[in-house]
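Quick one:
INPUT:
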């Protein structure tokens, strides 16, 4: 009986050693199915800080509607910015949003009046900026900011620089 217990004990010890060594020597990586979520500060102090401006959109050159702050110590090499504009009667457009932001740097999200045809338009639009960014192993998703902006997209009110008949080459006034 002692011999049977000894064989069983040695067998269990060997089996335990193999079971413990398996994860150490048999795998190069181990993954977990549990996700990790981190709550961060809001405003410009977050890892990806987002602050709205109170600028009025009134030209075709682009007006800053939000500032994005990279508060990480590494570059955000991949930045995807989605700008959703509502209640603007298709008067507004996004101007080249940033695709990367340097470490501890900031960049602007700009919106402008589309090329004005006819009388243009004015009003209040809701602008939502949603950002996803990747920086040295850190992924930031679904960071968003929403605000109301006034816009005035009427054609310019300034008269032409040289009204007809006032320039050097006035048609019909020959020598």
């Amino acid at each position: 009986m002692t011999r049977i217990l000894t064989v069983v004990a040695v067998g269990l010890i060997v089996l335990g050693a193999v079971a413990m060594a398996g994860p150490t020597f048999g795998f190069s990586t181990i993954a977990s199915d549990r996700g990790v979520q981190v709550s961060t500060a809001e405003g410009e102090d977050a890892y990806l800080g987002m602050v709205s401006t109170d600028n009025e959109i009134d030209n075709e050159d682009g007006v800053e509607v939000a500032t994005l702050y990279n508060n990480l110590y590494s570059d955000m090499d991949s930045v995807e910015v989605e700008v959703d504009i509502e209640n603007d009667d298709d008067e507004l457009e996004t101007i080249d949003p940033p695709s990367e932001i340097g470490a501890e740097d900031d960049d602007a999200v700009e919106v402008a009046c589309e090329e004005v045809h006819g009388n243009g338009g004015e009003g209040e639009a809701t602008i939502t900026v949603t950002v996803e960014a990747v920086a040295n192993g850190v992924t930031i998703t679904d960071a968003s900011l929403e605000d109301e902006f006034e816009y005035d997209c009427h054609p310019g009110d300034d008269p032409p620089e040289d009204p007809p008949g006032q320039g050097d080459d006035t048609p019909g006034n020959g020598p």
